[in-house]
Specification:
This protein is mostly helical and 162 residues long. It has a domain at 98-162. Helix content is 60%, strand content 0%. It contains six helices and no strands. It has helices at residues 5-17, 28-58, 71-75, 89-95, 99-106, 108-140. Helix 5 (99-106) packs across helix 6.
Length: 162
């Protein structure tokens, strides 16, 4: 005879009771969180380095990254300065181009997109600075008993009632 849902309910509730959104019972949780964060950081740094090396090798293919060296762009004087042959020499070249030259080379639409991205970077930097200077110490000094990276979250701040 098949079991009913009512008979499986105690088993289901027992299984759910072992699952917690935030477990602070073990002291190893903060170590696990730190290890997970560092592992994520290391994996992202490896991916970044691999992509940077691939870009440095592929950037010399004219059909991909030097498309502006075509005749129509050379005739209209809309060609950016050539980057150096050394790795990461393109960074200095890109940062030294004046804004007026960028506008002349890429057009108004692309220039406005670049300006918008710069604005987004400035706003994100401001709020990141605010978060690190103000919010992280407030969260860390909350009355909660979280340890590790969880002590820097809003979960570490308790209500005034409890």
């Amino acid at each position: 005879m098949p079991r009913s849902i009512a008979e499986d309910l105690p088993l289901f509730s027992r299984l759910l009771s072992h699952r917690r959104l935030s477990s602070n019972d073990d002291g190893d949780d903060s170590i696990k969180e730190s290890d997970q964060l560092l592992n994520t950081f290391y994996i992202n740094m490896i991916i970044f380095c691999v992509l940077l090396v691939v870009f440095e090798f592929v950037r010399h293919f004219k059909s991909i990254y030097l498309n502006r060296r075509k005749r129509k762009f050379i005739q209209t004087n809309r060609v950016p300065p050539a980057p150096g042959k050394f790795p990461l020499s393109w960074v200095y070249t890109v940062l030294t181009i004046p804004q007026e030259e960028v506008l002349r080379m890429v057009g108004l639409d692309a220039y406005m997109l670049l300006r918008f991205l710069l604005l987004c970077l400035r706003i994100a930097s401001f709020f990141a600075f605010f978060g690190v200077i103000v919010l992280a110490p407030v969260y860390h000094n909350g009355r909660g008993n979280n340890e590790g990276w969880s002590s820097f979250t809003i979960a570490n701040v308790l209500d005034s009632d409890g």
